[in-house]
């Protein structure tokens, strides 16, 4: 029955006939309510795990009772916050659609443009698109602002993570908005012209444009945008530098530069990452170095894991999957772009490219949730194999130490609910990783 219904749904979605009777808006609202209900149920399951009073067996040795309780409290507070923001933000989102507020906003924007056409060389629809998108963008920022303030200055503050000052918060907000404008307006204009001029092959040009844009942004983000928010300094610790260089030579990793990033100016959460296409840069958070002082092997273990990702071409594989995914989406968008009944169902009496895209992305909500499940599954497989790579290099016990330290310092969840974790996490849980690393370890010993 479900399959038949899905077939009917996709057939009506992809037709360009004016099918007055398909209530797309109602379907979308129903789907979104469904997705929210599932997510709230998972939140509730995870919440119950924060009530548990015992330390998981795998962590008994490393975790002190006070630290465990602090992590449980932090998790519970974050859970409350996430439920509240989920309910409010989804509520606002659904109300906007259910009350046909967006068609009214679009109409209002086009009236303003008609009255004072600001730039005569730019088509009126494009001008309206820019105005409409700006209002939506700013509205969205405004709604999420109280949540961001609460998260940074109340929740993170309470557990000693927040290092952001009010001044830095405002500066970040302004810089972020300006960068969005500098990147967003030209991209939006480019996209509009692509959609306007590509005719029958819309899906193909749309796919080419959006894929190249996202690859370009991913490449430019670390060297051009990140330095606007953080300082990057070459690693000073000569001993660690030499050890990292030796590790890189050992695995044939094309190491370019090693930087330390002042992550601690905003938060004491720690991390490390790599960037670059041919030559790779390594970035270590200063907080990571601080937390693993005099334990260089742990940092090397983390980097061996990262080099495992590189060796097994995980980034390229993810990129390929991403490109295929967006190809399917672009093709489907090409099929729905002319279906006028979708526009009418959402209360729009005019067809505009940006509206088509907006409604298409709403129609995709249920599919997106399923796809993110699959992506998380693939990502978890990759994490296991990168751990395995580090283990084969002899870093198994150091990697466990590093992961436990990272987990404790970040007060991450000690008792993850299996279903919650399956849906939300792109990484296996700490205990799952320890199990895999230790299991493999004992097997290697047996085989020796
Ligand atoms: Zn990884």
Note the main sheet: 4 strands, mixed
Query: What Rg is obtained from the alpha carbons, in whole angstroms?
Result: 25 Å
The string of secondary-structure elements, in order, is: HHHHHHHEHEEEHHHHHHHHH
Class of secondary structure makeup? mainly alpha
Task: Order the strands across the largest sheet as they lie in space.
Answer: 1-2-4-3
Number of strand elements: 4
Helix content: over 70%
Mean pLDDT: 89
Unreliable stretches (pLDDT < 50, length at least 5) are none
Number of helical elements = 17
The portion of residues forming beta strands comes to under 5%
How many separate structural domains?
1
Q: What shape does the CA trace take? A: globular
Distance between the termini: 55 Å
List the bound ligands. zinc ion
Keywords: Endoplasmic reticulum, Hydrolase, Membrane, Metal-binding, Metalloprotease, Protease, Transmembrane, Transmembrane helix, Zinc
Main location: endoplasmic reticulum
Membrane topology: Multi-pass membrane protein
Function: Proteolytically removes the C-terminal three residues of farnesylated proteins.
List the helices and strands and how they pair.
Elements: H1 2-14, H2 24-49, H3 65-98, H4 101-115, H5 124-158, H6 166-197, H7 202-229, E1 232-234, H8 238-251, E2 255-261, E3 272-275, E4 280-285, H9 286-291, H10 296-311, H11 314-336, H12 340-345, H13 353-363, H14 365-392, H15 396-409, H16 418-424, H17 430-447
Parallel strand pairs: 2-4
Antiparallel strand pairs: 1-2, 3-4
Helix pairs in contact: 2-3, 3-5, 4-5, 6-7, 7-11, 8-10, 10-14, 10-15, 14-17, 15-17
Pfam families: Peptidase_M48, Peptidase_M48_N
Enzyme class: hydrolase
Protein name: CAAX prenyl protease
């Amino acid at each position: 029955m479900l399959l038949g219904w899905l077939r009917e749904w996709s057939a009506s979605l992809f037709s360009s006939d004016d099918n007055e009777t398909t209530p797309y808006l109602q379907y979308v609202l129903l789907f979104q309510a469904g997705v929210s209900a599932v997510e709230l149920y998972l939140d509730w399951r995870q919440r119950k795990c924060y009530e548990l009073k015992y330390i998981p067996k795998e962590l008994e040795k490393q975790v002190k009772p006070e630290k465990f309780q602090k992590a449980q409290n932090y998790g519970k507070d974050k859970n409350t916050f996430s439920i509240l923001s989920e309910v409010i933000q989804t509520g606002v989102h659904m109300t906007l659609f259910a009350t046909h507020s967006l068609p009214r906003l679009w109409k209002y924007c086009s009236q303003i443009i008609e009255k004072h056409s600001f730039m005569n060389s730019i088509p009126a629809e494009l001008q309206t698109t820019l105005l409409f998108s700006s209002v939506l963008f700013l509205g969205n920022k405004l709604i999420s602002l109280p949540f961001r303030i609460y998260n940074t200055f109340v929740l993170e503050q309470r557990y000693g993570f927040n290092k952001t000052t009010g001044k830095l918060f405002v500066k970040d907000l302004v810089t972020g908005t300006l960068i969005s404008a500098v990147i967003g307006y030209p991209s939006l204009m480019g996209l509009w012209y692509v959609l306007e001029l590509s005719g029958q092959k819309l899906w193909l040009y749309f796919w080419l444009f959006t894929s190249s844009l996202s690859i370009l942004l991913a490449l430019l983000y670390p060297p051009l945008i990140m330095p606007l928010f953080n300082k990057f300094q070459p690693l000073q610790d000569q001993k660690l530098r030499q050890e990292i260089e030796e590790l890189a030579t050992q695995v044939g990793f094309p190491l370019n530069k090693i930087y330390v990033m002042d992550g601690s100016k905003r938060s004491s959460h720690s991390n490390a990452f790599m960037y670059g296409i041919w030559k790779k840069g390594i970035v270590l958070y200063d907080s990571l170095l601080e937390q693993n002082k005099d334990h260089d092997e742990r940092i090397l273990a983390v980097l061996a894991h990262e080099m495992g990702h590189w060796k097994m071409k995980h980034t390229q594989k993810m990129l390929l999957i991403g490109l295929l995914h967006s190809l399917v989406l672009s093709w489907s968008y090409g099929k729905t772009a002319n279906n006028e009944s979708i526009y009418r169902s959402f209360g729009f009496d005019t067809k505009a490219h940006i509206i088509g895209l907006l409604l298409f992305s709403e129609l995709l909500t249920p599919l997106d949730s399923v796809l993110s499940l699959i992506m998380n599954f693939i990502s978890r497989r990759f994490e296991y194999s990168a751990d395995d790579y580090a283990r084969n290099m002899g870093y198994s016990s150091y990697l466990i130490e590093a992961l436990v330290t990272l987990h404790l310092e970040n007060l991450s969840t000690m008792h993850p609910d299996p279903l919650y974790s399956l849906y939300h996490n792109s990484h296996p849980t700490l205990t799952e990783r320890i199990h895999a690393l230790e299991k493999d370890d004992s097997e290697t010993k047996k085989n020796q």
